[in-house]
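Ticket #4471: structure export looks truncated?
Reporter: QA, pipeline team
Priority: medium

Steps to reproduce: submit the single chain below to the structure queue and open the exported record.
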Amino acid sequence: MVEPSMRYIAFLRAINVGGHNVKMEHLRKLYEALGFTNVETFIASGNVVFETNIADPKPLEKKIEEHLQVALGYPVATFLRTPAELAAISGYQAFPVASLETAQALNVAFISEVIDEHQIQKLIARKTEIDDFHVHQREIYWLCKQKQSDSTFSNVVLEKTIGQKATMRGIQTLRKMAEKYAAFTG
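Actual output as written to the record:
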């Protein structure tokens, strides 16, 4: 009996930033080399959609990270979510509507493990007039009330604060992805 195919969206850290440039066609082929099917990329910032018969995302993330490190020559943290999880993430109301209407940006950071109360408190201590944070499951929502260039917060600061790797995406990108892959949430 053939196992049912699972669809995942991989959010990759360190793709097309910091001098690590990867063509999306090359990235797609790297995923296909792992035996994944229906592989496609979504914008050139390290978002890869694919199907596999592997149902457990944790060993799958590790397998992808190891393959990409060998192929690209540097570590690429990988965060997998299903289309249903992405739909929930992109629709989650992390902040009051009034705050969202005046904010300059809303970003979502993907992390591998739920953070504990101590890590949450360290993150909340970074709240300023410009930056606000909300933690929900394996995502951290960052509301930037002014231009992000006015903020001292970044992905690197987040990682140091919570003690684990993360990658961020803007909410608009996530909503577009959730809409595109909505047919796969059932």
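Status: closed, not a bug. The export was complete when the record was re-opened. Leaving a note from the reviewer for reference: The mean pLDDT is 93.
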